[in-house]
Every structure is written in C-alpha cells, then in structure tokens.
Design a protein that fits this description.
Blueprint: E1 4-12, E2 18-25, E3 30-34, H1 41-56, H2 64-73, H3 81-102, H4 106-109, E4 118-126, H5 129-141, E5 146-151, E6 179-182, H6 184-202, E7 207-211, H7 218-228, E8 235-237, H8 247-254, E9 259-261, H9 272-276, E10 282-283, H10 292-305, E11 309-312, H11 320-332, E12 336-340, H12 346-351, E13 357-359, E14 362-364, H13 377-380, E15 392-395, E16 400-401
Parallel strand pairs: 4-5, 4-12, 5-7, 6-15, 7-8, 8-9, 9-10, 10-11, 11-12
Antiparallel strand pairs: 1-2, 2-3, 4-14, 13-14, 15-16
Bound molecules: 2-keto-3-deoxygluconate and magnesium ion.
2-keto-3-deoxygluconate binds at residues 38, 171, 211, 213, 263, 313, 315, 317, 340, 390.
C-alpha cells in the first residue's frame, strides 16, 4: 500500500491566480493536481482543505478509481464546478503519483501514444480585422496548424477574446467584475468578414476557429454557422450556452459548420444529450473542471461512440499542471481533435517548471515520469493571491447578458 501521508493546497498568483493540490505519500513520491476555478479560486481551496484532505490521509494512493467514487458518491452533493474541480485535483495528483512510481510518463499508463503530438490552436486577436489577421500571420509563421480568430467589433468598446497583447488574453482583469456592453447585431456583421479576409490572407492549409462565448440565441448561431460555411471553419465554439442541451438541435438543423462546446461542463451528464444526439463535433470539457483524468476519459470514450472528438479548454486560467495532464490525455485518447494552447506568462512557467513542449504546431507532454510538471513552492509563496473576476456583459439597453 502506498499511503497518502499528507496533502496541502498552494494558492499562488504568478501573473494570475492558481490553486494547486500537492499530495505526498509514504514512499516520498508526491503528485500535483490543478484546482483552479477562475474567479472562485478560494471556494475550491476551502473545499479541498476543509472537506477533502482530511478524508485522504491514510488511503492507498494507488486506488484512484475508488477514491474518485468515494469523493463523488460519498459527498452526497454531486457535481458542480467547485466539487468537480476539487475531485479533479485529487485525481490528477494520484495519476501523477502512479506514473512516477511506475517510472513512466503518464500517457504510457493511459494506453500509450496514439499520435506523434497533439495539434494545438493559438489565439490570434486584434482590435480590428486587420490587426487580427496580422496576429494570425505571426502564428502561421510560428508553425501553428490551427488558429483561433477573435476581432474587435466596430461600435463595441471591448469584445471577448481581444487582448492588448498578442499572446495573452487575460479576461479576469479586475478586483470587481468589469461591465462590458454587447450587441449581437454588430458582432454578427463582423465575424463573416473576418473569416473571408482570413482565408484570403492565410490560405486554406490552416484550421481557423472562433469562439462566440455563449452570446447567441440558437437561431442567431444557426445564421452565423451558415455565414461561415464558405470559409470552412474548424469549429464554432460556445455558440449558445448549453444549459439546455436541446438548443443545439436548432443550430444543427441549419448549418454544417462544426460545433464545439463544454469548457464549463463538470461531468458527462452536462454533455449526454449533445453527444448522444450528435449535436456537436467537439467536446471542450477538460481535466480540471470535469473531474480529472478519470472522468474526462469516460467522457471521451462516450464521445468516441458518437463521432465526437476532444478539444480541451486550455486558456491561461488552466494551470501548467492541467496543461500537462491534458497533453498526456490528448496524446493517448483515440478521438483526439485539438487542444487549446493559450501560452502562460514567463512568471507562471517559472513557478511550474514543465516537460511539455511545442514544435511546429504540435505539443508533446515529454517523457519525464508522471505528469512532467512541478511546483516551485518557495517561488509560489512570493506571489500572493489577488482577487480577480471575469467581466460581465450587458446589452446596449442595460439588460444582463452572458459574458
Ligand atoms: O475562465 C474563463 C476563460 O478560460 C474563458 O473565457 C476562455 O472561452 C475561453 C476559451 O475558449 O479559452
Ligand atoms: Mg471558450
């Protein structure tokens, strides 16, 4: 038996907030799990410290599935982002430990590599279409095979996905939520033109993606999907909020533009109808917010039965621990689609030294035993937690809207 002897939560802010669980065992092997929930970080830290860690001490670190079931079924209160991020952190840390004990990179325990690397997409954005295309050309020159395009919208002072910096879009930007103004009409006039111009400038050998960030109604999403068809987007993401999964039926009836959704999903139940009815093409659930590697593999297996591929969320609020886990998962899973890669800042990368790397549009988790990522605790302690919230959205008449 490999006893769990201690566990602790590390909250650090090297440029942005991260919550990391570290589990230690009787053999001296430790494992890490990401538990970051953007804008609600301390809720997960407390859930882990107050309600999970006391239950872990003395258990066998090798019994990953049993511990998962114990934390999921045993809480009585199932699902939800806080619970599932906490379970994910435990699960990820235990997989890290198991792989380190085996002396193998985690992907070997998940069935081995199914491909040479994971195709990733980068974030090209700009205040207007010209600037977005300029940024996309830089990504193309760096070898990216897939690029997400987000452009400012004339008449709106700020738009989701558009940063002041080319690589880092950091939406959790204020101690209290920033209020943005949104107009679907203005947005829908801009995006097809962005894609038309992008195909002209970038050609057809690169995948182009777009995130509508939950802002449309199903019929508006259907129209956008149709308008984008001539430019063959790789996907249209989060066209509508998926609280009501049946919403996607309407979109599906009208467009062949591939659909992606699920970065806010916590469990297989959030995606059941979407997958079963083949209403989507890519599932965006990821390690930290969907119950860890154990549960994400279950979602991917179910998705595989219905020709749905993976497209894990990988924004900067998912820590390098999650990124490493996503790459081991992505390298091994049969129905991998694409992995989002929004680069972390240098500060973040220094606090979390890691073995994963980027080469000509593909990423590889590296061959270090375990996840191949560590936490420099002394350095982490120098970056104190800073309250930071995601913005909120209002329509032009003041009505609250989805951000
Ligand atoms: O925490 C929220 C961000 O990760 C999210 O807004 C980014 O939509 C996003 C994406 O696709 O990366
Ligand atoms: Mg998104």
């Amino acid at each position: 038996m490999l006893k769990i002897t201690s566990a602790k939560v590390v909250v650090t802010c090297p440029g942005r907030n991260f919550v990391t669980l570290k589990i230690e065992t009787s053999d001296g092997v430790h494992g890490l799990g990401d538990a970051t929930l953007n804008g609600r970080e301390l809720a997960v830290a407390s859930y882990l410290t107050d309600h999970v860690i006391p239950l872990l001490i003395g258990r066998d670190a090798h019994t990953i599935e049993d511990i998962w079931q114990f934390l999921y079924r045993g809480a009585y209160w199932r699902r939800g982002p806080v619970t599932m991020a906490a379970i994910a952190a435990v699960d990820t840390a235990l997989w890290d430990i198991k792989a380190k004990v085996a002396g193998l990179p985690l992907y070997q325990l998940l069935g081995g590599a199914s491909r040479g690397g994971c195709m990733v997409y980068g974030h090209a954005n700009g205040a207007d279409i010209d600037k977005t295309i300029e940024a996309a050309l830089v990504y193309q020159a760096e070898g990216y095979r897939a690029i997400r395009l987000q452009s400012g919208v004339p008449g709106l002072s700020s738009t989701y996905g558009v940063s002041k910096d080319r690589y880092f879009y950091e939406p959790a930007d204020a101690a209290l939520p920033t209020e943005n103004i949104w107009s679907t009409e203005k947005y829908l006039r801009t995006v097809p033109e962005l894609f038309r111009r992008a195909r002209e400038a970038l050609g057809w050998d690169v995948h182009l993606l777009h995130d509508a960030h939950h802002r449309l109604t199903p019929i508006e999403a259907a129209r956008l999907g149709k308008d984008l068809e001539p430019y063959r987007p790789f996907w249209l993401e989060d066209a509508v909020a998926a609280d009501n999964q049946a919403n996607f039926r309407l979109i599906r009836q009208h467009t062949t533009t591939p659909l992606a959704v699920g970065e806010v999903f916590n469990s297989i139940w959030d995606a059941k109808q979407l997958i079963e009815e083949q209403l989507i093409d890519y599932i965006r659930a990821t390690v930290v917010h969907a119950g860890g590697i154990t549960h994400l593999r279950r979602i991917a297996s179910f998705a595989d039965l219905h020709n749905v591929r993976t497209g894990c969320h990988g924004a900067t609020d998912l820590s390098p621990v999650c990124m490493a886990a996503a790459l081991h998962f992505g390298l091994s899973v049969p129905n991998f689609g694409v992995q989002e890669y929004m680069r972390h800042t240098e500060e973040t990368d220094t606090v979390f030294p890691h073995a994963y790397s980027f080469d000509r549009g593909l990423m590889h988790p590296g061959d270090a035993p375990g996840l191949g990522v560590d936490l420099d605790e002394a350095l982490a302690a120098q970056y104190e937690y800073k309250p930071a919230y995601l913005p909120v959205n209002r329509l032009e008449d003041g009505t609250m809207w989805n951000w």
